[in-house]
Amino acid sequence: MVYKDLSKEELLEMKKELQAEYEAFKAKGLKLDMSRGKPNKAQLDLTNDMLDTVNSSSDMTASDGMETRNYGGLTGIPECRKLMAEIVDVDEKNVIIGGVASLTLMYDYISQCMVFGCGGNEPWIKQGEIKFLCPCPGYDRHFGILEHFGIKMINIKMNADGPDMDSIEEYIKDESVKGLFCVPKYSNPDGITFSDEVVRRFAALKPAAKDFRVIWDNAYIVHDLNDTPDRLLNIFDEAKKCGSEDMFIEVISTSKISFAGGGISAIIASDANIAEIKKRMGIQIISNDKINQLRHARYFKNLDGIKAHMKKQAAILRPKFDTVTDGFEKAFNGTGIASWKKPNGGYFISLFVMKGCAKRVGQLCKEAGLTLTTVGATYPYGIDPDDSNIRIAPSYPNVDELQKAVELLCICVKLAAVEKLTEE
Amino acid sequence: MVYKDLSKEELLEMKKELQAEYEAFKAKGLKLDMSRGKPNKAQLDLTNDMLDTVNSSSDMTASDGMETRNYGGLTGIPECRKLMAEIVDVDEKNVIIGGVASLTLMYDYISQCMVFGCGGNEPWIKQGEIKFLCPCPGYDRHFGILEHFGIKMINIKMNADGPDMDSIEEYIKDESVKGLFCVPKYSNPDGITFSDEVVRRFAALKPAAKDFRVIWDNAYIVHDLNDTPDRLLNIFDEAKKCGSEDMFIEVISTSKISFAGGGISAIIASDANIAEIKKRMGIQIISNDKINQLRHARYFKNLDGIKAHMKKQAAILRPKFDTVTDGFEKAFNGTGIASWKKPNGGYFISLFVMKGCAKRVGQLCKEAGLTLTTVGATYPYGIDPDDSNIRIAPSYPNVDELQKAVELLCICVKLAAVEKLTEE
User: Fold this and answer.
1) Phi (first) and psi of residue B283, to 5 degrees
2) For a tag site, which of A147, A424, B55, B336 has the least CB within 10 Å?
3) Burial of A397 (0-12, 13-18, 19+ CB in 10 A)
4) Chain B contacts of A47, Cβ < 8 Å?
5) Taking the model in full, what pTM does it have?
C-alpha cells in the first residue's frame, strides 16, 4: 500500500499500530550504534598476523637499503610506494606515503593551498571568498575541512552515476570556485560509483580557476562486497588525455584494509603537485612511520595480496549489508515512503525517507536507543535541504544487533511518515 | 702556542705542514658523515624488543577499554598520555599524543596560528609582518618552519645559561614579535641547558603580543649522557606562578628514545591551548597510530622504564662525545682558534672556529670526504654572521670513524685559521 494514497482514517489507524510497535521496542532498552563506518572486531582480527610481520628478529632494511628504524625517506619506502601505486595503478614516483589517515593528507593539502596556493598561484586565503562544490549527500569530514577553513560550500546533486556534471560544468565558470571533494567509488554514503562518462567529464573540466583542485578520495577503491563489483576508470589515465593531471589529488588508505587505528595512507598526484607537496612535507616531517610501512608492504606484498584480503573483509560485511537492504525491502516495498540503493561495496547505505522526516526519524531512533549518523551530516553545514537522507553504517554491529536496529529504524521511518501525512 | 701571537713566518711554516697533513688525509678517500643527529644501528637495536610487545596474540585494548586497532581516541590512549605526562611532569589532560614527529606537531601548531590565530586572537597571517626571536646557534628545522611561513627571524644571542633574556625582554615590547622556538635542555647545537633564572624569566615574560607563543622543544629531556646530568625547571610549574601557562607549547618525542623512523610524539599545553589544538586536530585526523602508542606504553611502562633505557643509549653515545671533545682538547688547547662546550646530554657538540673560517672549514672537510652539517644552517636564513659555528653530530659514525673524522676536522680548522691569519 502506497502511504500517500491511504485515507486519513487508515493512516491514523496505522499510526496507532506503529506507535505500539515503537513503544515495545523502546521498552527493550536497546543500545545500538550505527553512526560511523567503523570496522568491527572480526574485521580487525583479519589483519592481526600483520603485527608479527615485523618483530625483533626482522631485517628492518627497506628494498633500497634504507634503515626503516631511522630518519629519512620523506616519500616512503619503495616497496610501500609500489604497493600503493599498484592499488591505484599509477607510477610509484607519483605516490607519497602518509601517516595513519588520508583525512590528514586532505586537510594538509587544503591547508597548503590556503596558505601557499597551488600550481604556483596566489594563496587561496588571499583570494577573498572562495568556494567548493559539494556533491551531496557526501562525507561529513570533507565538509568539516571546508567549513573549518571558511570555504563556502555549494550543494551539487548526486545522480545515479555520480555528481551532476551539468551543474559542475556551469559552476566552474566562476573563478572563485576552487575545487571539490568526492568519493568516486562506492561514494559515502550513496554507494555510487562514477560512470565512465562522469569520470571523463571530470577529466575534461575546464575551470576558470587555474588553481582548481578535485580531491579524489578513493577510500573504497578495493572495498568490493560481492562478485559483481563496480568498475571505476583511472582518473589519471583520463586526465592525461586531457592534459589535466594537475587538477586531481587522489588519496587512499588502509584504514579499512588493515587497521583504522594503525594503518597507512597515500597521496597520489601529478609530478608538479608532488613537487609542491614534497616542498611542504620536507618542512613538516622527516618521514612518516617507515616501520609501519614495512609491516604493510611485507604483509600484503602486492595488489593480489590486497585483493585476497579484501575478499575476507567482504565475507564479513556482505551479510550485514544484506540484513539492512533485506529489512528495507521487506518494510518499504510498495510504500512509496523510502528509497535506497544496494551498493556493491563501500561502507554505507544511504536511505532517503519521506521529505521532511529524516530528523524526526533520527530523534525517534535515538529515544529508543539507536544512534544513527547525525541527520543532516551528509550535507554541507549539516543541513539536508529535503530533510530526507539517513546514512546507515552497517559494519560495526553484529548481524543480530543489526537486525533489531533495522527493524526499529523501519518502524521509525514509517511512524515519521504517517505523522507527516496526518499533520494538520 | 696561541696562533695569533705567531709571526707570519711561523704561520707559513705551519701552513705548509697542515697542508701536507690535509693532503695525506684527502688521499685516503674517506667518506664520513657527521651532518645529522641520527641514532646509529646499535642504538636502534636497543629498542628492537619493543616490536614484540604487540603481536597477533596481544590484547589490543587500551586501559580505558578502547580498541586500539579501530577509530577513535583523538588525544591518544590513556597509558601513553600518562607515560608522556610522567616524562614532562604535567597532568595527563594537558598531553596529546602525536604521530611519528614532534616536528609535525610544531609545524601544525604554527600553521594553526597563521590561519586561525591562537588564544582567540586574529590569525597571524592577517596581522601583517610578524616576527619570531631565534636564539642561535639553533635548530635548522625550527628556522625552516619560520622561513616557510614567511615569519621574519631575529637573531638572539645564546649565553652560557640560555638565550640572552635581556634582549628577549626588550624585543617582546614589539607587538609584531609573536614567539620563539627553543630547545631548553641540551640545546641544539650548543648542549646548553637553560638555568633556573632563565626559565623563570621566560615564565615571567610580559609580551606586548597577547598571542605570543614559546615553542618549548624539549627534544632531549631524558637524553643525559653521564651521571652529572643538567637539571631543567618544569616550565609549566614556573608559568603557573606567573599565570603565563598559555604562552608555552611544549613538545617531546621518542625519536631518539625508541625509533626515529617509528616513534611517537606529544604536545603539552595549557587547557586553553589544548582545546584549540583539539578543535583543529578533530578536523584533521581521527586518531594518531594507537597501536604504536600501545607498543610504546607497554614496553617502557613508566618514567623509570624510560630512564633505564636512556642509560643504555648513553653508554653507546658517551664514548663518541668523548672522542670528539678529547680530539678538540688535544688539537686546540692553547691555540686560541676554537671553543666548544662538553655537553652532559643531547645530540650535538657546537664548535666555534675562528671568525670568518667556518665555511672554509666545511669546504675543506667536504673536499676530503667528510660531510658536516651545512655551515650556517644553525642560524636563521642559513647565515652565521660570524661564519664561526660548526655543528658536530657524533651519534651516527662508529668511534673509529669518528676518530678519523675529528682528526681531519681539526686539521681543517687549523688550516683555515692559518690561511686567515696569513691573508694579504
Assistant:
1) -90, -30
2) A424
3) buried
4) 69
5) 0.97
Using the beta-carbon criterion (under 8 Å), do A261 and B149 form an inter-chain contact? no
CB B194 within 8 A of CB B319: no
Would you call B319 an interface residue with chain A, using a CB distance cutoff of 8 Å?
Answer: no
User: What is the C-alpha to C-alpha distance for residues B129 and B151, in angstroms, rounded to an integer?
Assistant: 7
Q: Among partner residues B56, B73, B261, which is closest to A48 by beta-carbon distance?
A: B56
Beta bridge partners of B155: B134
Q: How far apart are the first and last CA of chain A?
A: 22
Mean of the per-residue pLDDT values of chain A: 97
- pLDDT band, residue A424 (cuts 50/70/90): low
CA-closest candidate to residue A59, choices B257, B312, B45: B45
pLDDT profile of chain B (424 residues), mean per 10: 94 97 94 89 98 97 98 98 98 98 98 98 98 98 98 98 98 98 98 98 98 98 97 98 98 98 98 98 98 98 98 98 98 97 97 98 96 95 98 94 95 98 87
Average pLDDT over residues A40-48: 97
According to the model, what pLDDT value does residue B349 have?
Answer: 97
B194 and B230 Cβ atoms separated by less than 8 Å: no
Query: What single-letter amino acid sits at B181?
Result: F
Exposed (0-12), middle (13-18) or buried (19+): which is B271, by Cβ within 10 Å? exposed
* Count of residues in chain B: 424
Which A residues, 166 through 205, put their C-beta within 8 Å of a C-beta on chain B?
none
Three-state secondary structure readout of chain B: CCHHHCCHHHHHHHHHHHHHHHHHHHHCCCCEEECCCCCCHHHHHCCCCHHHHCCCCCCCECCCCCECCCCCCCCCCHHHHHHHHHHHCCCHHHEEECCCCHHHHHHHHHHHHHHHCCCCCCCHHHCCCCEEEEEECCCHHHHHHHHHCCCEEEEEEEECCEECHHHHHHHCCCCCEEEEEECCCCCCCCCCCCCHHHHHHHHCCCCCCCCCEEEEECCCCCCECCCCCCCCCCHHHHHHHHCCHHHEEEEEECCCCCCCCCCCEEEEECHHHHHHHHHHHHHHCCCCCHHHHHHHHHHHCCHHHHHHHHHHHHHHHHHHHHHHHHHHHHHHCCCCCEEECCCCECCCEEEEECCCCHHHHHHHHHHCCEEECCCCCCCHHHCCCCCCEEEECCCCCCHHHHHHHHHHHHHHHHHHHHHHHCCC
Q: Is the pLDDT of residue A294 over 70?
A: yes
B255 closest CA partner among B266, B245, B244, B240: B266
Beta bridge partners of B176: none
Complex prediction ipTM: 0.97
- Asked if the Cβ–Cβ distance from A104 to B285 is below 8 Å, we say yes
Give the residue on A whose Cα is nearest the Cα of B284.
A104
Share of chain A above pLDDT 70, in %: 100
Q: Distance between CA atoms of B89 and B306, rounded to whole angstroms?
A: 13
CB nearest A262 (choices: B58, B149, B291): B291
Q: Which residues pair with B34 in a beta bridge?
A: B372
CB-based contact A75:A269 (threshold 8 Å): no
Which of the four pLDDT bands, split at 50, 70 and 90, describes residue A36? confident
Rounded CA separation B273/A74 (Å): 29
Question: Which of B6, B322, B357 is CA-nearest to residue B330?
Answer: B322
Q: In a mutagenesis test of the A interface, which of B289, B313, B347 is the best target, namely the one with the most A β-carbons within 10 Å? A: B289
Element spanning A351, H or E: strand A349-353
Q: Is A352 helix (H, G, I), strand (E, B) or coil?
A: strand
| Cα–Cα distance measured from residue B377 to residue B143, given in angstroms and rounded to the nearest whole number | 9
The Cα–Cα gap between A392 and B380 comes to 53
- A42/A314 Cα distance (integer angstroms): 11
A283 CB near a chain B CB, below 8 Å?
Answer: yes
